[in-house]
Model the fold of this input.
Amino acid sequence: MTSKQRTLRALGAAAAALIIGAATVNAAQSGDGASEARSKLTFIVPADPGGGWDLVAREGQNALREGDVVANSQVVNVPGAGGTIGLAQTVRQAETSNMLMVTGTVMIGGIVVNRSAHTLEDVTPIARLADDYEVIVVPADSPYKTTADLVDALREDPRAVAIGGGSLGGTDHLLAAMIARDVGVDPQQVNYIPFSGGGEALTSLLSHSVDVGISGYNEFSDQIEAGNLRALAVSAHEPVPGIDVPTLAEQGIDAVLPNWRGVMAPPGISAEEREELTEIVTEMTRTPAWQDTLERNRWDDTFQSGAEFEEFLSAEIDRITTITEELGLS
Amino acid sequence: MDALNHLMTGFAHALSPENLLWALLGVLLGTAVGVLPGLGSSMAVALLLPITFQLDPTAAFIMFAAVYYGGLFGDSTAAILMNTPGQSSAIATAIEGYQMARRGRAPQALATSAIGAFIGAILSTTLVAFFSPAIIDLALQFGPAEYFALAVFAFLATSAVVSQSMVRGLVALCIGLVISLVGIDGISGAERFTFGMPQLFEGFSIVTITVALLAIGEVLHVAGGHGGTESGALRRSGTPWLGRKDLRRTLPAWMRGTLFGLPFGVIPSGGSEIPTFLAYGTERKLARRRAARGGAPDEFGNGAIEGVAAPEAAGSATAGTAMGALLGLGLPTSATAAIMLAAFQQYGMQPGPLLFERNGDLVWALLASLFIGSVMLLVLNLPFAPLWARLLLIPKPYLYAGITTFSALGVYAAASAMADLWLMLLLGLLGFMMRRYGIPLAPVLIAVILGPVAETELRRALAVGQGDVAVLFDSGISLALYALIVIVLGVVTVNRARAARAARAQVSAPHPAEKV
Done:
């Protein structure tokens, strides 16, 4: 046997040992008496790593581990088409009792924009976990000092106000449309310029290419504090503690748009399995790790499950779908 | 020197044994994923994201940045040895690097690329450490109109890569533009060439395109019996030392490449690919001019060492300034930077103007570790150049089977979608056919990267200006770029005319009878 052959043999043996080892560990983990979801739970993230949904799954994974809720959880990213590729994959996994898909406001718009064959009604609602809020900003030297100035400009000539934010049909776009509608401007007339994220929208704002920016509060918070951007309003129901910016409602505009994130299970699971998943998620949100997550990310704790969540979900689907359609995106 | 003091404190942090270990782990991992086609530093950092829960932020970011830099060092290895670039930033390196390898100069090519990557990384990191406000100012001068002008400029400047055969180059460019059009249009929401298939809504990912055309296409080409390893030349590996003659040519090329890379690091979606092509094109033109003036012969097409040196330096020079844009502005200009931004958010930090004040310790330790990581990578890559070259001693079937496996693995892991694998095979066949019929691949990639940038930015600029074309010429930067284009075009036209006249004169010279 030549040395080359020996090396190849050895490599092969090592690989085989590794595979067998991994299989043994896997079998051992799923062998105990607890439910399948308790021993191994999969988060489907219908977006790329690094986004908001991905963050929810990874923070959730951490809380499940730290709080000893689930022995082994993993995150699988299935990005594409506003989250509807991941949704379709979850629907195909019918009757899988140990899987949770992360979802939220953006997916409702995504389903309309992408003419998805599946909707959120095709999966099993488990819980709403947390909300964060949108902020409307202008550069520090902008002529718009208040939301009223911005509204006046929009009423005068909506095309003359370039508004930059995230992708088409996402929360940033929807909020722009809701504001326009409430102040009597045709949402389709809004000059909305989509960017691939808050960072790109930010440079366009600071280089005065766009006049107004809309994004999640965290994306702009640093620039607001540094005095480079001026925050005009946030999209929350009530003033958010720690954020010294008035809400739209306080300024007479009826546009509330929480960017909520929640989890859904595949269709066709039994009532007990659904109960078990709800219990797991409830335990997860009670861990200190999750409380720390909420604080670090400045998320609002809006935990809801069961009938309460279903009610919220169906109202939200109606509302967001209507706005998206009004924007001419369907 | 305030920055120097900060940096020294940073070095004190970064040189702790623990942080050195994380940096070493990072550069090893980065090099590994950089070498393998399909796996890139963005995927490696994404897989490492969960460790942010266990590690302190300084250690985690030292490791992430080391992976990022490592990827840019490692990507050229497979490009040079097997014509299968590990990441899209090494496509330009592959063109001449592979030719060098075929002529038995693989160790020299690898060494040139390692030193080039080192020079680019060190210079750009220095720039960020001492002049980050200037970099941020530069980034903020750019709006949609300026990006569009830059894309137009880049299209024309990279045409040097296309110019061997105009028709074939244009065919390749069009193939690239068509590929880049597939998907839902981000500005209007309209579907283009999706045939109603949700898998196509996001378009083709750059990873799938690169891996399919360059790696799978090459594997099929080799399997089809047209591969270039016919002679034993590939297997000869000598010292990695560059002779004085090589150094005289590579040194200015490294510097020019770095100059191209620096500004592009802060430009979103320009990525690290555009400057590599610009650097490649420039070197090629310079070599031709040098040869025309009776200097050293133009070796482009036959393994010109400048063609390896400049793109490598340009590619890794973007890494430093990209880190500057990320830290100082929260602007991710590459896929890897985008995931690092997410990691910052997981720690409850927001990169931006206040990061240097609030988390100064972390920022300066990170910057110091970038220097350390670059040195580690040079030390790691240079002695390994001849060793890597010995990779070619592995019998071809094993070698190319391995490439195929890793390519498929990388493409599948990115989105866990079977559809991506089918697309990879389809585009791989396209890549094979293009090789078979001598259609160049580089223009496809240029079109795929630059096409969407040009389109999106043009439409954004026009939307902001409500359809008024004047908005495109509204700033000093765009005007300067267009002026540059006009000057370059003018010079080229004059040169062409002069060359044509000279050619005519030469043709008529041997026939004195005609003059009478």
Q: What stands out?
A: Chain A has two domains: 35-131+258-326, 134-251. The longest helix of chain A spans residues 3-29.
